[in-house]
Amino acid sequence: MERRRWLMFAVFSFLLVCSSGRELKLKSKGHVPVYNHTLVTIVVHYASAVYMSDLTALFTWTCSRCDGVTEGFEVIELVVDVQNCLQAFVGVAKDLNAIIIAFRGTQEHSIQNWIEDLYWKQLDIEYPGMPDDAMVHHGFFSAYHNTTIRHGILDAVKRAKKYYGDIDVIVTGHSMGGAMASFCGLDLIVNRKSKNVQVITFGQPRVGNEAFASQYSKLVPNTIRVTNGHDIVPHLPPYYSYFPRKTYHHFPREVWLHNIGLGSLVYNVEKICDGSGEDPECSRSVSGNSISDHLSYYGVDLMGETWRSCRIVVDPGLMEYSRTDIRGNLLLSRDPKTVLKLNNVANPL
Predict the structure, then answer these.
(1) Helices (H) and strands (E) in the chain, counts
(2) How far is Cα 98 from Cα 161, in angstroms, rounded to an integer?
(3) 320: number of Cβ within 10 Å
């Protein structure tokens, strides 16, 4: 019995050495993102907080998810596109010395319908630095580029850099929010000539074909896509190896969270995948059939706290910081040096 236990321990230890990604710095040629477990497990809390529907608590960073490792974060822009049910914020994390941009994903209550919509056609993209055969997902591209979101985000980043200097930018999002985050990171680098931009997404779907993914990885090399277990969304839209030009294709670098174990021993592994974007030994090695794996990463819920429509809920005392457009979309903005002193009582408009 003791020999069997020792053998199990030895094999298990070998698997951990081969697979574990805790604080691992990947050594490779070229521009390869470094997976930092501590940083990513902080950023996931921002991807969670952006789901909050109490805009007053979110804007003043007093919401139920706005404490712990993100305490002291200062929101300078909160954008709610009611027409398209989109939400994002920009703020400054002083402990990270970085601007954080977070995009909300799809509400879990409508995720099944959203998954069915992931079979939408691709769009030929005419974009600076992209090859002629690059194609992207029409819905994801439009959600970032053709809504209220983009203008509000870029304006806030400009104001933040004017006050804090040319600090790092970390763009994050979960699910569809991850897709939007990837387009935002690309936009900042290509069109705004930003430097030190890092993209960290969770449960992100594929957003373009192989030509797009290949060029994206060169333009936005500091990108980490975290996938979890059997999460269904990273498997969508489908990947078809026999349609190399047309099929959707992930860009690197994937970090796959999964469990390994022998007998009663189970360990959470963070596997850093290869540079192809479609590593057959990472999330593609399992069936993507789990919605529950999609809704929690690193033990953090990535979903709305309650079911709500996309109506705006904000305290009247916040109105001096707000403006709306003719479609009813809302932007809450403040100068980075302004200190907010607001009550945390949210009332529906």
Answers:
(1) 8, 14
(2) 10
(3) 9
Question: Residue 66 contacts by C-beta under 8 Å, 6 or more apart in sequence?
Answer: 49, 52, 57, 58, 73
pLDDT, position 250 = 97
pLDDT above 90 as % of the chain: 62
Residue 293 in tokens: 């794996």
List all residues 6 or more positions away from 190 whose beta carbon is below 8 Å from its beta carbon: 127, 128, 129, 219
Per-position DSSP letters for 285-307, written without gaps between them: GS---BSGGGSEETTEE-S-SS-
- Cβ neighbours around 185 below 10 Å, total: 26
The residue extents of the domains of the chain are 2-333
| Angle, CA of 42, 332 and 198, to the nearest 5° | 35
Extended strands (E) in the chain? 74-81, 86-93, 98-103, 122-124, 135-137, 168-174, 197-202, 223-228, 254-262, 265-272, 296-297, 300-301, 322-324, 330-333
Q: Which amino acid is at 255?
A: V
Determine contact, residues 233/294, Cβ cutoff 8 Å.
yes
| CATH assignment of 2-333, among 3.30.450.20, 3.40.50.2000, 3.40.50.1820, 3.40.50.720 | 3.40.50.1820
Q: Of how many residues is the chain composed?
A: 349
How far is the CA of 209 from the CAs of 177, 247, 267, 277, 340, in angstroms? 19, 6, 34, 11, 44
pTM value? 0.87
DSSP lists the bridge partners of residue 87 as: 80
pLDDT for the residue 341: 43
Mean local confidence (pLDDT), 194-214:
96
Element (H, E) at 2: helix 2-19
Counting Cβ atoms within 10 Å, is residue 97 exposed (0-12), middle (13-18) or buried (19+)?
Answer: exposed
Residue 327 CA to residue 20 CA, distance in Å, equals 48
What is the DSSP code (8-state) at residue 133? T
